[in-house]
Amino acid sequence: MNLLLVDDEAPALAKLRRFLADDxxxxxxxxxxxxxxxxxxxxxxxxxxxxxxxxxxxxxxxGLEIAAALPAHVLVAFSTAYDEYAVQxxxxxxxxYLLKPFTRERLAACVARLRERxxxxxxxxxxxxxxTALHALQPVADHWLVADRGEMRRVPLADIECVNAADxxxxxxxxxxxxxxxxxLAAFLAHPAARRFVRVHRSCAVQPARVLALEPLGxxxxxxxxxxxxxxxxxxxxxDEWLAALKR
Length: 248
Prior knowledge:
The protein has two domains: 2-118, 3-Layer(aba) Sandwich (Rossmann fold); 139-247, CATH 2.40.50.1020. The chain is 34% helix and 32% strand. It contains eight helices and 15 strands. The strands form four sheets. Strands 2-1-3-4-5 form a five-stranded parallel beta sheet, sandwiched between helices. Strands 10-9-8-12-11 form a five-stranded antiparallel beta sheet. It has a three-stranded antiparallel beta sheet with strand order 13-14-15. Strand 11 and strand 12 (204-206) form a beta hairpin. The longest helix is centred in the middle third of the chain and has 17 residues, at 121-137. It is globular and about 60 Å long. The mean pLDDT is 83.
């Protein structure tokens, strides 16, 4: 995958370059410090770029404006310190939305999404059939099988704090790592291997054993503080389900 990196901060570009260095399937074809330079590069060499990892707040034209001007075949993932642009980003068909500071594992999950979107339809369908079959065969056990860099990896479920929905994927978050798997949150929770997880809002399930505290937020909402320090909102809709799970 040919990737263009765009960020007006040199340390941010250096971090991206460092995190991507070990991925043999990613080739950083260029870097740009502003949107105008990025757009000029893509317009001059449209076939040289498969995807752009794009900051949003930059001098001159914003990343959102640049994304709207890119050719249709170029995929976009945003990398930003601001979460208020997420809705606009996905309206522009962004593949992912990385919030800074992100981990090496979170960037790898973003790259995996880009790579999956670029895969030929036949290959993507074949991979989906294989993943579905593996999940169906997966015994009631203490691990979950995920595809990681072309290999199947056994992820210990005891290490997973929470599972987030991400379109047709789920993100399995441990304290120090994140794995991406092509299945839905509903399908994950329906599997016997995931019986230890409880849904806490529409797009997230949490493992109660990894929760340290329940902190009220007002108006009936609350947040869960996990062992890693991560906080997850507990919506009123799922509060009774959560409290019932604690009594089991």
